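sry for the spam today, last one i promise. struct tokens for design, 166 residues
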């Protein structure tokens, strides 16, 4: 039997931006730097997939809304958790990025396999790949912050990232 925390979803434990503003600002800068040069729609898919794996409701709420605002199709958002079974919905480049996202996010399964890295390297030049890796690392950090502080999903609106202080 699993014991449920009755406070989950009611209120955040804390707002990191209020108690560690320099850390929060550094994360925002890292996020911006990591996203530089990565296709914005692909970046949102990566952020959503990592957030699904990490069970981060706050980040799922934010990044699905942002993806929709960028014109992402509903079917691609719905199928993202099963992207490997939906090859016609994602490009090979997107599939390579999603495979790398899963490998980097779930390090408990071992190291990032050479085949996964090589697949991504086929679709991204070295600079793009470096930014993609940084983007994956950053969303994983955001997920861990949001899950730990119990950031509450639901109120985020696209364009509100500056207001969405975790």
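last one done:
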């Amino acid at each position: 039997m699993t014991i449920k925390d009755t406070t989950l979803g009611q209120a955040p434990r804390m707002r990191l931006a209020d108690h560690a503003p320099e850390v929060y600002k550094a994360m925002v800068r890292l996020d911006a730097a990591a996203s530089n040069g990565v296709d914005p729609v692909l970046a949102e898919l990566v952020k959503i997939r990592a957030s699904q794996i990490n069970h981060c409701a706050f980040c799922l709420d934010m990044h699905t809304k942002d993806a929709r605002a960028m014109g992402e199709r509903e079917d691609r958002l719905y199928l993202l958790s099963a992207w490997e079974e939906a090859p016609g919905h994602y490009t090979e480049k997107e599939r390579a990025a999603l495979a790398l996202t899963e490998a980097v996010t779930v390090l408990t399964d071992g190291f990032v396999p050479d085949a996964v890295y090589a697949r991504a390297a086929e679709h991204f030049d070295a600079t793009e790949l470096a930014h993609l890796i940084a983007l994956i690392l950053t969303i994983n950090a955001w997920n861990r912050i949001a899950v730990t502080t119990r950031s509450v999903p639901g109120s985020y609106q696209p364009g509100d990232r500056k207001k969405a202080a975790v």
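Helices lie at 16-19, 21-35, 40-53, 57-69, 74-79, 92-105, 114-123, 126-149. ok im logging off now
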